[in-house]
Design a protein that fits this description.
Layout lengths: L12 H10 L7 H26 L6 H11 L7 E5 L5 H7 L4 E6 L2 H10 L5 E5 L2 H7 L4 E7 L8 H8 L3 E9 L5 H9 L16 H10 L3 E8 L2 E7 L3
Helix pairs in contact: 2-8
Length: 239
């Protein structure tokens, strides 16, 4: 939901303070001044984002709500789902309410143990292991594979998606949206060092690039959504 605001805005002390402070930075050239503001914006954006997960519970967080709603629109009660990189199992647990079976896989042993202690359902299983190893070893055909914030961590996402395709009929992909703000593109032009969403990312996909990657591996995009700083795609695998 957007906002309809009064033309007269309430005074914000910090805004006035920093705006006036910026006027004193006459000793910086235009590029350095721009890079300074981009760096500060990245830092405070990151701090606010991290704090949001402490402030909102999983069920209340706007980002999580829209992701779960997006996924549940495509699930059927008869579906079996593989959630790769399931972490603490919160998403797996939510999905399990809407389908026949969910298997959550993660290579962090502690996360799997937490997931097992937090969530207990007859149709929910958590497995410790590497996603590649699990795909190589399983013979099960899943209706859906969930890839929520996975492929941006993988050196060769093209090959990874191709490995997923034989094991499923549908794939959900969610990654950070590089196009969420024009400031990211300013950072790129100015070679700002803070031009990533997380330190362990090896990819920061823009919308055109990710759409091309998905279609090039043979997936058909059924629905896409761009909001809350992430891209979501629901895809059918080749028949």
């Amino acid at each position: 939901m957007g906002l309809h605001l009064k033309r007269e805005k309430e005074k914000v002390f910090l805004l006035s303070f920093f705006y006036r402070l910026s006027k004193t930075l006459f000793f910086l050239n235009k590029k350095k001044k721009m890079n300074l503001f981009l760096t500060l914006e990245w830092i405070f954006d990151r701090l606010a984002h991290e704090e949001s997960f402490k402030y909102f519970s999983y069920d209340e967080h706007p980002l999580r709500i829209y992701t779960i709603n997006f996924i549940q629109r495509h699930l059927e009660p008869s579906y079996t789902v593989l959630d790769l990189g399931s972490g603490y199992g919160d998403m797996s647990n939510k999905i399990a309410k809407s389908c026949k079976k969910v298997v959550g896989v993660d290579y962090v042993y502690g996360d799997i143990e937490i997931a097992k202690s937090k969530h207990s359902r007859k149709n929910l299983e958590f497995v410790y292991g590497d996603a590649f190893d699990y795909l190589n070893e399983t013979e099960e055909l899943f209706d859906v594979i969930i890839l929520s914030h996975i492929i941006e961590h993988i050196d060769n996402p093209n090959d990874f998606l191709k490995k997923c395709i034989p094991h499923t009929k549908e794939i959900f992909i969610e990654v950070p949206d590089y196009d969420k703000t024009y400031l990211n593109h300013y950072r790129s032009i100015l070679n700002n060092k803070l031009n990533y969403a997380d330190t362990d990312h090896v990819w920061e996909f823009d919308r055109e690039e990710l759409t091309k990657l998905i279609t090039e591996v043979g997936l058909e995009i059924v629905e896409s959504e761009f909001r809350f700083g992430v891209m979501k795609f629901w895809c059918h695998t080749p028949v």
